[in-house]
Amino acid sequence: MTETTLGAVVQAAVLADSATAQPNSAQVGAKAANLGRLLAAGHRVPAFAVLSTDACARIVAPVTDSIADLLATLDHTDPTSLRSVSAAIRALITTRTFPDDIRAELDAAVDALVEPGLRSTVREARTSAQPADAHHGNAVVEHSATSPGPESHSASETAGTHNSVVGSGGRVRLAVRSSVSGEDSATDSFAGQLDTLLNVAPAGVAPAVLDVLASAYSERSLFYRAHRGLDNATIDCAVLIQVLVDSAVSGVVFSCNPQTGDPAEAVVSAALGLGEGVVAGTVECDTFFVDNASRTITSRVVADKQSRVVAESGSGTTIEQLADTVATAALADLQVLDLTATATGLAETFGAPQDVEWAYDADGTLFLLQARPVTATGARETIFDNVNVAESYPGMSSPLTFSILRAAYEQVFRACHRDFGATETIVERNAASLYPYLVGTAHGRIYYNISNWYRLFLQIPGMEFAIEGWEAALNIENRYQRPAAPKRGMARVRMYLLRLRVIAIIAFGWLRLQRRLRAFFVELAAFTADLDHRLAPETPERERDPHALLEWMERCLHELVPAYSVQIFNDFIAQQMFHVVGLLLEREGLGEAEAITLRNELFCGEEGVDSVDPVRSALTLTATVRDDAALRELFEGPLAPPQVWKALAQPGFTDFHAACLRHIALFGDRTVDELKLETDPLGEHPERLVPMLRNYLRGGQNIDEMAAREKLIRRAAEDTAATVFRGKFGRRMVFRFALARAREHVKQRENMRLGRSRSFGLVKRVFREYGRQMHAMGLLEAPRDIFWLTYEEIAALTRGTAVDTNAARTVAARKRDHEVWHTEELPSRIITSGIAATTINDPSFDHPTPTVTSGAVLRGIGCAPGRVEAPALVLATPDPDVVIDGQILVASTTDPGWVFLMVAAGGLVSEKGSVLSHTAIIGRELGIPTVVGVAGVTRRVSSGDTLILDGKAGTATIVQEEGP
C-alpha cells in the first residue's frame, strides 16, 4: 500500500499534501486533522500516523451491540452507574483482537516511524514473549530538517521524509492518543477526557490503541458528553501514533488570553520535561504574558522549579524531583516571543484563537505537538479552596449554616471594604457580584471563593502589596504574582502615592481599632439581652412569632454582623505583622525554617487570650473534683455521663452543680463544630461536660504548669532574638515594634473568635425557636428539620414568596443528598470554569486520588514547639465523649471547639491549618506540640500507631504501626 493510499492507517503526508484529497476529521479525528493543517502550514511536527475511525470501528464492531446495551442502562447523574458501565465497556474493548489486515498496516506504520536500523529489533520484540524494551530514551523525529516555517520545504517534503534524531540508547518511544470527531473543536475541547499514553515502546502500540479506544467510554468522557449534549452511543474515534519528543522544555501557548478572551494578549505556560506536567498541573510552571501588538513580555511569573515529568525506564511517565531547584526561567525571552508569534500566526491562518502545545528538545529545536481552537474563551475561572475555612466548618454543614454564613460574609466584607478605603462607587459596583459570593458550597462542604477574595484586594488600588502576607498567613497556595514595579516616571510616582493612601487608611483604622473592638462587644451584649427578653416565657408570643424572629435576624445581619468587620481589620494587621516578623528575622541571616521556628516560639505564652478562659474554667472544675472525695468517686465510677449529671443535681453537690451551670452559661457556645447552627450548644446537653472533666481528671492537666512551660520557651526565644539584633539599634526597635503589634493583634483575633461563637449561639437560639414553631404549624416533620432549609427559603415561607411551599419534601430530598455526599471525599481546591455547578457535579470528586505522605517521617508546619512520643488517636469527626489520655490527636482539620480535646492530648497533627490558625495559637498558648499542614496524615496514620511529634521541626514520625 502506498504512502498516500487511504487504508486502515493514514500517513501524515496524506494529511499535509494539498495535492491529495485530504480526509476530513470524520476519518482521522480532529486532533490528527489539526496536525495535518500544521504540517501543511510548514511547521515542524513529530512524525505520526493515524489509525482511522473506520479501522477502529471494525476493531470494536463485535462488541458494539453489547456496548449499546450497557449505554442504555447508563444514568450519567449517578456516579455508581458511570463507574459500572465504564468498567464493563472497558473490559469488552481491551480484550479485543485486531483484524489481520489492520494489524499488518499498524505494524508497518509503526516500523515507518522507527529508525530503519531498528526495524528488525522492533519486529523481534513484537513477536517475543519478553516485555518491551525497558531502557530510557525518547526519540525526536523531524518532518523538516531545517528551521520551521513555510519557507523551509513544501508540505509534502516536510511530511515524514527525513531521518530520525534518536534519543539516548537509540530507542524510539511513542505517544498513543485519541483523535475524536468533535475533539479539539472551538466548542468541545474534550481536554483530559480521553487517555493519552506516553513513552510507549513500539511493541506496545497495539494494546495501547485498545486502551485509548476504551477511554472513549471512561467515566469522565461519558459524563462530559452527556453534560455537553453529545451522543454517547456514536463515538467516532481514531487513534494517533506519534514519535515522542524527548523535550527539555514544553508547554502551551495561547494566541489570546484564555481567561478574558483578549486577542491583544498571548499567554505562554512552560515547564521542564514532558508537556504532561503543564497540562495536568503536576509540576511547577512559568507563565508569560505577551502584548501581541508590540511583541513585548508585559508580565512573567517564574516559579522555583523542583520537578519535571520524564519517561519511566519501562513505559509511562513519572515526576522526577530535581537535584537542585531551578529558579531561572524555563524559556529565553526570544523563545517566548517566537512561540506567541507562531500561535498568533496560526490564529490568523485558521481564523480562530489557537491553543498550541509545543516542545523544545535539548538542542533547542521547536516542535508543535497539537493545536486547537481556544475553548470557552472568556469563561471565568473560579477557584474554591477550603484550606482555612475548614478550620471553622470542617466536614459537612447544613444548608441553613451555609446560607447564614454566606449572608454574614456579604455584610462583613461590604463594611470591611469601606474600612480599607473602597469608595462608595467601588462598593456599589461590587454589591451584586462580589460580596454575596465570597464563600461557596460543594456537596455540603464550605469553601472560600478564593477568586473573589483576590478581587477584594485588587479592587482597592495600591492594596496588592498585602496579598503575599495574606496568602502566607492562611497557608493558601500562591495564585497571584504582583507585576513588576515600574522603574521610573509617573507610573512609579503613582504607585507610591497609592501605597501611601492605603498606609494612611490602615494607620487611621488602627488608631480606632480598640474603640471598635469594644463597640462590637457592647452591640453583642445588647442583642443578647434583647433575645433573652424575647424568648423568656413571660414575654408575649407576638415578640417571638416567626415574623418577629425574622426581623430580629435581619437586624442582626445588618447591625451586629457589620460591627464584626473590625475583626477582619484586626486579622489583616495580625497577618501582615506576623509576616513582617518572619521577614525581619530572615533579613538578619536566619534561614526560612529557622526564622519560622523562632517566630513561633516568640508567640508562646501570650497572656490575656480569652479563648483559653473556657479551658481554665473547666480545669478549675476538675481541680474541685480532684479535691472532693465524693465528687471524685462519682466521676471515677462506672455511671454513664447522663447519670453522673443527674446525680450532680442531688443536695450534696449543690455548689459544684451551680459552678457547672455557670461554666455552661459563660462558655456553653464554645463546642466542637461551634459555628455550625445544627451543632447543639452545651446547655442543651450538659451531660457532655462529664467526659471532658473525666479526661482532665485522668490526665492531671494543670493550666498554670502549661503556661509556665510556654513562658520559658518565650523567654528563650526573646534571648535568641536579642542576640540576632545585637548592635543593630534601629533594626531592633523596628523588630520589637512589629513583634509587639503582632502579638497584640493575634491575641485580639482569638478574643474576637470567642465573641463570634457567642454571636452564633444567639442565631442558634433563634432558629431552634423558629423550627419549633414551623413544626407546630405542620410545615416540618421535626423542629430540627429547619437546618435543611436555607435562610432565604425560611424567609420566603414566612412572607409568602416561596415558589415551593412543601418544605417537608425539600428537607427529605436534601437529607438523601447529604447521605450520599457524606461518603464522598472532595479535594481541598476546586477550580471551575463558566458555570461552577458543572465542575462541582463532576463524578471524579467522588473518589479523588488521595495525597498520601509516604515514609515514616511525615512533614508539615511546626506551630507549637515541644516533642512527645505517644499513641495516635485519629478522629475523623470530633466526639465530645471520646476518652483522651495523652494520645496524639490526628485530624483532617480542627475548629476552636477542639481546645477542650487538645488540653487532654499529648499533641495534635492535622492535614489543614496555618501558623495563624486557631489550633496553632492555642497550641502555643497551652504548650501542646502542634503540627499542621501534613498532607494525607489521616490516611497514613491509624489509631494506636506510636508517633513522635516534634512541634518545632514540624514532623510526625511513625515509630511503630499498630497491627491489623
Summarize the model shown.
The protein has 964 residues and is α+β, with helices and mostly antiparallel strands. 46% of the residues lie in helices and 15% in strands. The protein has an eight-stranded mixed β-sheet with strand order 20-27-26-22-23-24-25-21.
Spatially, the strands of the biggest sheet line up as 20-27-26-22-23-24-25-21
**Multimeric state:** single chain
Low-pLDDT ranges? 1-5, 18-22, 116-169, 184-192, 846-855
Instruction: Note the overall shape.
Output: globular
Tell me the number of helical segments per DSSP (H or I, 4 or more residues long). Answer: 34
Tell me, rounded to a whole number, the average pLDDT. 81
Q: Sheet with the most strands?
A: 8 strands, mixed
Total number of strands: 27
- Kindly name the structural category: alpha+beta
What level of helicity do the residues show? 40-55%
Strand content: 15-25%
Cα gyration radius (Å) = 32 Å
Terminus-to-terminus distance: 62 Å
Task: Explain the layout of strands and helices.
Elements (H helix, E strand, L loop, with lengths): L8 E3 H5 L8 H16 L7 E4 L1 H8 L3 H9 L6 H16 L5 H14 L5 H9 L12 E2 L13 H4 L5 E2 L8 E7 L15 E5 L4 H11 L3 H9 L9 E7 L3 E8 L10 E8 L3 H5 L5 E6 L4 E6 L3 E7 L5 E10 L6 H18 L3 E8 L4 E8 L7 E5 L13 H21 L4 H7 L8 E4 L2 E5 H9 L8 H8 L14 H23 L1 H23 L10 H18 L1 H23 L4 H11 L10 H15 L1 H8 L4 H8 L5 H14 L21 H11 L3 H22 L4 H48 L14 H9 L7 H15 L7 E5 L2 H5 L16 E3 L1 E4 L2 E9 L12 E4 L7 H5 L3 E4 L7 H9 L3 E3 L4 H4 L5 E5 L4 E6 L4
Helix pairs in contact: 4-5, 5-9, 5-10, 13-19, 13-20, 16-20, 18-19, 18-20, 18-28, 20-21, 20-28, 21-27, 22-23, 22-25, 22-26
